[in-house]
Structure formats: C-alpha cells, structure tokens
Amino acid sequence: MVDIPVDGDKAVFAVEGLDKLWAFRSRLEIPLAHIKGVSANPALARGWYHGFRLLGTNVSGILTAGSFHRDGNNVFCDVHDPERTIVLELDHEFYDQLIIEVPEPAKAVALLQYKIGSAHT
Q1: Residues 8-23: pLDDT tens digits?
Q2: Which sign, positive or negative, has the C-alpha torsion 75, 80, 82, 83?
Q3: For residue 79, which of 32, 45, 87, 105 is within the disulfide window of CB 3.0 to 4.6 Å?
C-alpha cells in the first residue's frame, strides 16, 4: 500500500510496510506538474501479466510490487488488492505510469486531481 502526502509542488508516494522490500523502493517524489492524469482503474492491476519485471516481485493474485516494462513503458506497481488501485500517467519521469494501491481510491483520485489542476494553472 502507498501513502500519498502532497508536499508543496510534489506528491510523495511512500511505500508502506514490507512492500518496501518487495518493491525495492520506499518512496517516489513526483512534481505535480509531471502528473498528466490520475484515475481509479482496478483492471490494470488484475491478471497475471504485468509486464517484464525489471526489479520487484510478482506473485499472481497476491502481490505485484516493483518496476516493470509493459507496452513500451516503465511502470511502478505496488498492489495487493486490485479494487483499491489508482493509476497515474506521468510525463518527464523514469516511470511512465504508477499503478498503486491506496486505502481510499476515490479520495486519493479527487485529491490528486485537485492538486494537479492547481499545479497546471
């Protein structure tokens, strides 16, 4: 699971608990201006294929965490429960997409959309 505090003009994606070990990352800092879009999208986290694993863990149906290469894009995943998944589309970053689990997807999407709307104006 990932916690998302917003610090000024950056969103900090803090990987929690043992997921730090499985994902080989503890946090990502992304400028709000580099977030092109955010949505709740459980479909991207379902299934067994998440791309070519660069560094991380993929136990089908249980956990997907780490860096993957999928459809020509670099993707960071941290998901146990696909129903709590949000997807961020990024620009000017190593990762093209973040596919992450959050406690309350609708709340996280609304907060990030509000913050990135403010950053782009």
Answers
A1: 899 999 898 887 777 8
A2: negative
A3: 45
